[in-house]
Specification:
Layout lengths: L2 E2 L1 H4 L2 E2 L3 E6 L2 E6 L4 E5 L1 H11 L4 E2 H10 L2 E2 L12 H9 L11 H17 L25 H6 L11 E2 H12 L7 H5 L20 E7 L2 E2 L4 E6 L4 E7 L5 H8 L11 E7 L1 H7 L5 H22 L3 E5 L4 H8 L10 E6 L19
Parallel strand pairs: 8-10
Antiparallel strand pairs: 1-6, 2-7, 3-4, 4-5, 9-11, 9-13, 11-12, 13-15, 14-15
Helix pairs in contact: 7-11
The structure holds flavin mononucleotide.
Length: about 350
Amino acid sequence: MQTLATQQQNYHLNPNLFFYLRDGEFIVWDYLNHQQWIVKSDYINALEQIAKGQSISISMTQDLLQSGMVSEHEFTDFQWGWDIVSKIYHLSSSNIFEDIQKSEDEFVEEYLATCEQLNQEEIQTVVCDYEFEACFDSRVDEVPLGEVFRKRKTTRNFDGSSIEYSDLGSLLYTACGEIHEVWEDLQQAGYTIESGRRSFPSGGGLYPMRYIVLALNVEGILPGVYEYIPRANGLKLLKPLDEHRVFDDLTDILNSQFFCKGLAAGVFFVPDFSKEWEKYPHSRSYRDVFLDIAHCSQNVLLTATAMRLRTWVTAAFKDEKLRHFLGITEAFTYPAEFIGIGHGSNHSLPKAFINGEALGQ
Ligand SMILES: Cc1cc2nc3c(=O)[nH]c(=O)nc-3n(C[C@H](O)[C@H](O)[C@H](O)COP(=O)(O)O)c2cc1C
């Protein structure tokens, strides 16, 4: 059998392969590119040989090169501060949406078809037959924040009107900013303070997130991608946006969700993993980053609602396209959530979804 000297040929093993056995078969999973193969054991041996810089048969080399498990070029890896568990989860759950652009009609049609299908599935009724000792007689308006809670709603009909620059500032400062100038008790006890306290809790007081703000129609500033910097309580321009095409670009990146059209502003919450792994080196802390972001995003929603602004939330993005659109330079760093902000009607459904037949009206 003919062999190739892998070191000479400089073959490289894909660093994002996970090997496991299922139903008696060897599975190789490329968790970055979302591909899986059932692989015979001689190929597993070949992969091991390549990893060790040893030679393998030509026929196998061709197969492995074609599959992408092996390459003649070095694979680019990136710095990940936790163990492989969170890395596998992070990469395998990113970039999952196909890069196809759907028209508004196609999107609505597909969405309604999915609803129709779900309607046909039998949903088990939950029977609540417990005996209660006592029932609460609670009223939302008995709680100072209650009315804001009741009013918060995800709406999907924005009218294109602007918001004030100062309102955007008040919203960001209140919900995301360092509203406590000093962390008095910690300072008095002699602790070093890395970040100013904010209005939401954060594991270890790290606030491991960046806020990338879209100014789409904000009075007094140019349409653009900005970063809100809590320490300065200010916006830094990352890049201007072309107002004539921004909503088409955004619709595509937000997975054809055309109801972003008419938003005045928006905030992308971008995880800053490095802040977290510096202090907490176990993969478990990967979860905390998203918990912290969720706390903060709820603050944005409630603050905006209290300011009589409408909000829309999404976490469905074309990750890599979005990363480029926002100018995020770190590899594989993708926003966790987007909150769109603006004015419009209080309806959950975009007008195009209000189809009597589909909604059973
Ligand atoms: C993590 C997360 C992801 C969401 N993703 C989407 C989304 O992709 N598109 C969308 O229109 N709404 C999205 N929503 C909004 C939910 O559909 C909405 O919160 C839910 O239907 C409850 O309605 P409410 O927010 O008006 O109470 C998301 C909400 C959350 C918290």
